[in-house]
Amino acid sequence: MSENKNNEFVKKVAEQKYEFGFTTDVHTEVIPKGLNEDVVRLISQKKGEPDWLLDFRLKAFRYWQTLPIPTWGHLTLPELHLQDISYYADPLAKKPKNKEIDPELAKTFDKLGIPLEERLALSGTAVDAIMDSVSVKTTFKKQLAENLKQQASKLAALKAEAEKKAAQLEGVELVIETKVSATGVTYGSVNAATVVEEFAKRGIEIDRKIVTMRDMKKVGTSEATVHFHKEVEVKVPVTVVAENQPAPAVEEAPVEQPVEASVAEEETPAAE
Fold first, then answer.
1. Cβ–Cβ under 8 Å, residues 144 and 138
2. What does the pLDDT average to over 91-104?
3. Which CATH number does 167-242 carry?
């Protein structure tokens, strides 16, 4: 009897309206329930995302499909019905005339202590208010735009400097002499550090951290990559030869001799 009363009490509490909360009555666009690749594409389209981000979302979704639903110890939870959920809702789909956002949305964030009016954001901190699946409003847009502009200028300057350094290596090829065995195996490997030393001998200072290459343990050719910038890199040919070994003679292309046409001289009959 006592157990039934407890169950009734729990049910009553669970079903009653939360007295300390509130609701926001705004028009919200909600997509149909369910989750599949078409839904992922729809959400990406509504957000205006680039193709690379859509591809990333699809790869993540396909991987998620291979994962089992997690279980938690000592808990009995009802089964998750993932296809019975809507995964996108947009409270900004229908904007009031002459208003950036629905006044009801602004009131909601005011109640939460998050003022969306810049004049009220005394701390000077930019706010990106998210509700459901979208960003409702971002404050300090002009300042953020200026910051992005300055950041873009700095990034462009870094790339230009990287391109200037990369130009120094244009046409550079390294020939590194080292001790080798009779079978052509080197005593010690030729690696990125060796390449940096060779650059220094030519008066080109390169940070070891930005040079990558596979270790070479025998004579032959390979290449080192110098990463000046995520968009600027130079591949430098590297040839390892035996120490004190004369450089292989460059065979000259045979010079074609001009073909002399044999002209048959006609004998002129002697005049009688």
1. yes
2. 61
3. 3.10.430.100
